[in-house]
Amino acid sequence: MSKRFIPLAEVSEILDISSAQAYALVRSGDLPAIKVGGRGQWRVEVTELEAYIARMYAQTRDFVRTQQPAD
């Protein structure tokens, strides 16, 4: 059975970013997450991470399209 939630360390590994960058994504609300446990550990639902990645692909496509020179 695959995991439903993953820690920020795993998010940073998957996205190949620093832990601080992963934390900033969560704190800004760009990447929805929850705090769990007595120490308030951040966890990201795998489906939310996949949705974030899809949004970033869409934003990148839009950016590339707008940067293309007009004929």
Architecture overview:
There is one protein chain. This protein is an alpha+beta fold. The protein has helices at residues 8-15, 19-28, 46-67; strands at residues 5-7, 34-36, 41-45. Helix 1 (8-15) packs across helix 2 (19-28). The termini are far apart.
Low-pLDDT parts are none
- The chain-level structural class is alpha+beta
Give helix % range: 55-70%
Strand order of the largest sheet: 1-3-2
Nearest-angstrom radius of gyration?
Answer: 15 Å
The total count of helices amounts to: 3
Helix and strand sequence: EHHEEH
**Largest sheet, described in full?**
3 strands, antiparallel
Q: Kindly state the mean pLDDT as a whole number?
A: 94
N-to-C span:
51 Å
User: Quick one: overall form?
Assistant: elongated
Strand content: 15-25%
How many strand segments? 3
Secondary structure elements and pairings:
Elements: E1 5-7, H1 8-15, H2 19-28, E2 34-36, E3 41-45, H3 46-67
Antiparallel strand pairs: 1-3, 2-3
Helix pairs in contact: 1-2
Give keywords:
3-stranded antiparallel beta sheet, 71 residues, single chain, alpha+beta
Summarize the structure.
The protein has a three-stranded antiparallel sheet with strand order 1-3-2.
